[in-house]
């Protein structure tokens, strides 16, 4: 079993008091104050000029329930969600500009399903959702805060999502940086696997191909940047 274990944790909150990052707390407060009579705010009720501290880290998403037989939406996806606007900081984190593309066209399938599932929950409950997703690799934390804010257009249905994402490590701001960190993890894990195999063979034990390639059923989940990182290039 490799000592270079990956574990992940997802915390979900609905309380403003749980949002630690001031920019996200202010965005949530602004969204809530625009709700007016208690219904969800409309997109036109919010102003980009009032989101200055968050502009680089927000995305505007068009959302609608999935319908059967849509050619560009795989079976099993709960919503049709398309990026309409994406901030520069999120584009840098992702490594590509997803504007105009469906979420299922941007991420690997299991990542897209998780994201669309969270968006569908916000659409159905008509509630904001705040997540903190964290990964621990070799004593270093990776992850992000994600705030999902549902909005209307003219009718009562949720048709827009205002999404804000901030990496937990403020020094990791691009896809290239994430990939370099993950490459370090892969290299360290490969060295340990190679040495462990040689150690076992020197004692007369046979080593399976799965052990040689570093397979570890207890590794704590898939590596970030592949299945679990929302803003890593696929």
Layout of strands and helices, then pairs:
Elements lengths: L5 E8 L8 H12 L24 E8 L13 E8 L1 H7 L14 H17 L3 E9 L2 E13 L5 E10 L7 H28 L6 H4 L22
Antiparallel strand pairs: 1-4, 2-3, 2-6, 4-5, 5-6
Summarize the structure in words:
- This protein is an alpha+beta fold.
- Helices cover 29% and strands 24% of the residues.
- The chain has a six-stranded antiparallel β-sheet, with helices on both faces.
- The longest helix has 28 residues, at 175-202.
- The radius of gyration is 20 Å and the shape is elongated.
Gist?
The chain has five helices and six strands; from the N terminus they run E-H-E-E-H-H-E-E-E-H-H.
- Which strand order do you get reading across the main beta sheet? 1-4-5-6-2-3
Distance between the amino and carboxyl termini: 27 Å
Helix percent band: 25-40%
User: What percent of residues are in strands?
Assistant: 15-25%
**Main sheet attributes: strand count, strand direction, barrel closure:** 6 strands, antiparallel
Q: Pick out the low-confidence regions.
A: 1-6, 214-228
Mean pLDDT: 80
Described by the principal axes of the CA atoms, the overall outline is elongated
Radius of gyration: 20 Å
Output the helix-strand order: EHEEHHEEEHH
Structural class: alpha+beta
Question: Tally the helices: what do you get?
Answer: 5
Extended strand count: 6
């Amino acid at each position: 079993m490799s000592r270079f274990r990956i574990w992940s944790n997802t915390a979900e909150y609905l309380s403003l008091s749980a949002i630690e990052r001031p920019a996200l707390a202010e965005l949530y407060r602004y969204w809530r104050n625009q709700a007016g009579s208690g219904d969800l705010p409309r997109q036109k009720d919010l102003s980009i000029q009032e989101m200055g501290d968050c502009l680089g880290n927000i995305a505007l998403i068009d959302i609608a329930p999935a319908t059967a037989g849509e050619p560009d939406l795989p079976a099993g996806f709960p919503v049709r969600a398309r990026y309409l606007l994406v901030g520069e900081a999120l584009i840098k984190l992702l490594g590509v500009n997803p504007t105009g593309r469906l979420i299922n066209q941007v991420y690997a399938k299991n990542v897209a399903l998780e994201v669309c599932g969270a968006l569908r929950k916000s659409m159905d409950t008509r509630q904001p959702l705040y997540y903190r997703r964290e990964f621990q690799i070799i004593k270093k934390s990776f992850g992000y805060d994600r705030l999902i804010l549902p909005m209307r257009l003219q009718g009562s249905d949720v048709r827009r999502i205002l999404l804000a994402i901030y990496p937990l490590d403020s020094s990791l701001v691009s896809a290239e940086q994430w990939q370099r960190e993950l490459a370090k993890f892969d290299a360290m894990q490969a060295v340990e696997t190679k040495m462990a195999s040689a150690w076992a063979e020197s004692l007369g034990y046979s080593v399976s191909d799965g052990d040689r390639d570093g397979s570890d059923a207890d590794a704590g989940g898939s590596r970030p940047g592949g299945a679990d990182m929302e803003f890593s290039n696929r």
